UniProtKB/TrEMBL annotation:
An annotated Gene Ontology molecular function: aldehyde dehydrogenase (NAD+) activity
Protein name: aldehyde dehydrogenase (NAD(+))
Claim: Cytoplasm is one of the keywords in the record: no
Active-site feature positions: 265
Subunit-structure text: Homotetramer.
Residue stretches making up the Aldehyde dehydrogenase domain: 33-494
Amino acid sequence: AKFKIKNVLKELGVKNTNEGTSTGKNNFSSSDVSIKSYSPVDGEYIGSVKITTKDDYEKVVETAQNAFKVWRTTPAPLRGEIVRQFGNKLRERKEALGKLVSYEMGKSYQEGLGEVQEMIDICDFAVGLSRQLHGLTMHSERPGHRMYEQYHPLGIVGIISAFNFPVAVWAWNTALAWVCGDVCIWKPSEKTPLTGVACQNIAAEVFADNNLPEGISNVIYGDQHVGGLLTKDVRVPLISATGSTRMGKIVAQDVAARLGKSLLELGGNNAIIVTPDADIKMTVIGAVFGAVGTCGQRCTSTRRLIIHESMYDQVREALVKAYNQLKIGNPLDETNHVGPLIDLAAVKMYENALVAVEKEGGKSVVVGGVLEGQGYEGGCYVKPAIVEAQPHYKMVQHETFAPILYLLRYSGDVSNAIEIQNAVAQGLSSAIMTNNLREAEQFLSVNGSDCGIANVNIGTSGAEIGGAFGGEKETGGGRESGSDAWKVYMRRQTNTINYTTNLPLAQGIKFEL
Ligand code: NAD
C-alpha cells in the first residue's frame, strides 16, 4: 500500500502514455500501435510505449550514424568520464529504478536494486577499461619494420534484451560499447518497455549535459519484427542478443546471412552436483535460492540437482523443509521470497511442464500449482515445485522458465554426475558442492563441466560483472561483461610500418622490376 508507482515513474521521468522511439532526449513515433505494460505483481496497467515503425527506425539509424562520427573521435578516457557520470546518475536513481524493475518485471525489490547495482558496477569497470583498450606489439620478421595491433570501434551495436534482466543486460553492453567508441540501439523486451524508457532518460540526460549529440544511446520498441529491423541491417555490425535459444537460432541466421557479428546469450539448463562430501546447509541455501529466486526466471536458475545416492534422501528432506517455509507474494514486500511469473503465458508453460514431466514418470515431492485468492489476483503467482525425475526426460532436457527443480540421482564416482550434467543441449552455468579437492578439480578440468560458468561451493545463479559471462552449446557461445569481453565491441587492426628505404616482402619473396 505504501508503494506508489506514479511517484516512481515521475522520479524517472517516465510518462505513462505515448512514450516512444528515442535517440536521446527526443521522443518520436509515427505509429498508432502501442505496447501496454501491465504489472505481474497486481495485474495493474502501468503505461504504454509506441511501437517503432520502419520510418522511425531509419531516423534512429541516421542519427546514430552521425553521432558515431563524433563519439569515435572522442578520446576513450573522455568516453569513460561520460560513463562515470552515467554510473553516478544510476546511484541517484537506484531506488526508483529498482522499484520499477521490481514492479514491471515481478522480481523482488532486493533483486531490482541488485540489478541497478550491477549497472553501476559495470560502469565502474568500463571507466577503468577506457584507459586499457590495449593491443599488442609484435616483432616484425623484416628489418626496419614495426608491427602492432590496435582496436577501433565498430559503429552501431544493436542490443536485444530479455524481460528477466530488463536493465542490467543493457548496461553490460552499453557501458562497454560506449567506452569502446560505439553507439547503441537498444530494443528492450516488449514485456518490460517502461524500464527501457527510464534507462534511456538517464543516459540521455548525461549525453545532453555534456553537449554530446543525440544518437549515442537509442531505444526502439516492439517485438521480434522490430528486432528483425536490427538483425537484418548491414549498418549494424554487431548484434548482442539475450533471450531464448529459439530466438537465438533465428537471430544467428539473420546476422550471419549478412556476415555480421553476433553475441548470443541464450537459455540455460543449469545443474548443481551434490557429492558425498557436500556441505548440506550450503547446498540447500544455494539450491533453493537458485531454483526459486526471480521465480525461476534467471538464465542461471538452478533447474537440476544431481545428487549422490548416499545423500539423496537427506538432501530431498532438507529441501522439502525449506520449500515449506517459502513465502510467496508481492515482491515489493521484502518479507516474501518468491514473486510472480512474468505473465499468464508463463504460468501456462509452467503448468504444462508439470503435467508433461509427470506423464514421463516424474514424481512431485513438493507439489506445484497456481495460487488464487487475496494478493494473488494478478494470476501470475505459482508454487515452486520439486519433481523427482530421470536425466533423459524431455522436460528435464528442456529449459522451462519457471520454478521447477528436478532431483536426479547418481551413483559411484563424480564423473557419472558430470556426464549427466553435460548431457543437455545448453551450457550456461554449473556448480559442484563438495569439500573434496579431487572432485572439485575434476569438475573444473577438461573432463569436467562443459559450461561457460563452473562454480565450486556456490550455486549456479547470479554472477559477478568482473568475469566474462556466457555459455556454450545452445546458450550461444557469447561472452559479455568483464574480463576481455570488450574485444567483441571493437574491430582489430594489424599495422605494419616500414621505416627504411627498401621494400622487403614478407616470407622473403623476391620481386624485382
Ligand atoms: P525471448 O527469446 O522471447 O525474447 C528475448 C528478446 O528477443 C526480446 O526482446 C524479443 O522481442 C526478441 N526477439 C525474439 N525473437 C526475435 C527475432 N526473431 N528477431 C529479433 N529479436 C527477437 O526471451 P524472453 O522470454 O524475454 O527471456 C527468457 C529467455 O532468455 C530464457 O531462455 C533465458 O534463459 C534467456 N536469458 C539468457 C541470458 C543469458 O545471459 N544467457 C540472460 C537472460 C535471459
